[in-house]
Write a structure and sequence with these properties.
The chain starts with a helix and ends with a helix. The chain is α+β, with helices and mostly antiparallel strands. The protein has two domains: 46 residues, no CATH class; 36 residues, no CATH class. A two-stranded antiparallel ribbon has the order 1-2. Strands 3-4 form a two-stranded antiparallel ribbon. The relative contact order is 0.11. It has four helices and four strands. The longest helix is centred in the C-terminal third of the chain and has 13 residues. The protein is elongated, with a radius of gyration of 18 Å.
């Protein structure tokens, strides 16, 4: 309904294609969009250029250090090991974005 409203067409008129990993896109490519959900949260981004969004419901994570070691480069991973709970978890959430692997 959101995409149809942006394009001023009926929802049934939208044609989707799917990438190799199953990511949907509009076949006509008039708009780019991305959708993410986490728990009861949902976030939609709509643009005329490529766009991506992510949201995560914050909840205590028992395995945050294992996640950090798997997702981040070696230098930041060593930083996480020096932190103790719960300060480590808060730091992981606040600063993790800038250390993620690309």
């Amino acid at each position: 309904m959101i995409l149809a409203r942006y394009l001023a067409v009926a929802p049934a008129a939208l044609n989707f294609i799917y990438g190799i990993n199953g990511k949907p896109a509009l076949a006509d490519a008039a708009l780019e969009f991305n959708l993410t959900t986490s728990g009861e949260l949902a976030l939609v981004a709509i643009s005329t250029t490529a766009v991506g969004v992510d949201c995560e419901m914050l909840r205590p994570q028992r395995r945050w250090l294992a996640i950090a070691q798997r997702m981040f480069a070696p230098q930041p991973s060593r930083h996480w090991k020096r932190l103790r709970k719960p300060s480590g978890w808060r730091c992981f959430i606040r600063r993790g974005r800038r250390w993620r692997r690309r």
